[in-house]
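Consider a typical record:
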Amino acid sequence: MHDDDYWMQQALLLAAKAESLGEVPVGALIVIDDEVVAEGYNNPITTHDPTSHAEIEAIRAAGESLKNYRLCGATLYVTLEPCVMCAGAIIHARIDRLVYGASDPKAGAAGSIFDLLPPDHRFNHKLEVTPGVMSQQCSAQLSNFFKRRRAEKKAKPKPKPKPKPKTLPTQQASRNS
């Protein structure tokens, strides 16, 4: 039986696929009974779909693979703490356990900014959350991606501002009246 570090390493490989496409490197996989049933990685830019987060892609693929929209008995491994949208999908899919790597201090919905996956019975589904698995590796992958992206953006020549059109004396006279 594989442990959480093993599965998170697999999620990091999926995140690298996203990065190779110019996407934010987030990878996810769904495991049931120590077998991968689905994988996903961030893909919103390529697909022109703002919902194409790694978690959503993995949940969609698992539902299709299992021919069921309920993923009872599933563990979702993801390299970054889920956002609000993904947290909602995790609840609706009835995933039993969430394991994530890096916390997301800007949009995290599993405790960092929002706590939409509480361990109590506020929702009709309760799941176990295990944060911080391989957090340093997951955080480093994201940090390196954004550092490189900022450096690339800084290195690009800035477009020259367009010159303002000169007003003709007749146009200026009509403005004054």
Remarks:
- DSSP finds six helices and five strands in the chain.
- The mean pLDDT is 91.
- Residues 135-155 form the longest helix (21 residues).
- The helical segments are 4-20, 44-47, 54-66, 84-93, 135-155, 169-176.
